[in-house]
Amino acid sequence: MAQSHIEWTEMTWNPVTGCDKVSDGCRFCYAEAFSKRLQVMGVEKYRNGFGLTLHPETLQEPFRWKKPRVVFVNSMSDLFHKNIPLDYIQQVFNVMKQNPHHVFQVLTKRADVLKYYDSEEWLDWSHNIWMGVSVENQHAMPRIDRLRETGARVKFLSCEPLLGSLPELNLQGIDWVIVGGESGRNARPMQPEWVQEIREQCLAANVPFFFKQWGGFKKKAGRTLDGLIWDQKPVMPELFVG
Fold this sequence. Notes:
Elements: E1 2-3, E2 11-13, E3 16-17, H1 30-40, E4 53-54, E5 70-73, H2 86-97, E6 103-108, H3 111-119, E7 129-134, H4 142-148, E8 154-159, E9 176-180, H5 192-205, E10 209-213, H6 218-221, E11 224-225, E12 228-229
Parallel strand pairs: 2-5, 5-6, 6-7, 7-8, 8-9, 9-10
Antiparallel strand pairs: 1-2, 3-4, 11-12
């Protein structure tokens, strides 16, 4: 686990590392570049670079965190990768369930796998598991329906990197929307009107809106949208109750 610089979480926990590309949002994957850098540095956890690797030794880590935390699960992978055994995914879910004082944020681009596992009742949704899907452009919008059809208690969208306009978002049953531009030297530009369009839809639907950053070289680009910082989050304090 590690403290995180991601604005919408507090720390990361990676029981799996490594992945492969499935959509436009993956083109300049930060996790791939970071994994390869850690491999060169000799970090044992990344001995396989960005090859999919399970880390069962990490499953005990949340039991050692006494203070309630907000945790991004698998920031360096995708928990619903088709090559991750279902039994291992269930073990991760069980760890999250047994630590009800923490909030665990899970994010996937593989919404079809998520929906299939859920439809077979293989996933146990405790109150503290927030499930999200990445929605980088209109091609990815069907993921929202797959998410909405699951039994997750809290559902969110990560529109990052936002690569195009997302008109007519169906936000029914969605509890949170995060928007951000692509980071790094090869970042594809994000247009202000795309962000404003999503914000207005969130306001109309009374869904919390979180603007992460404009992209590019993040610190220089900033997080201000129309003169304001948008840090809205779901207000569910009961999630921290055991």
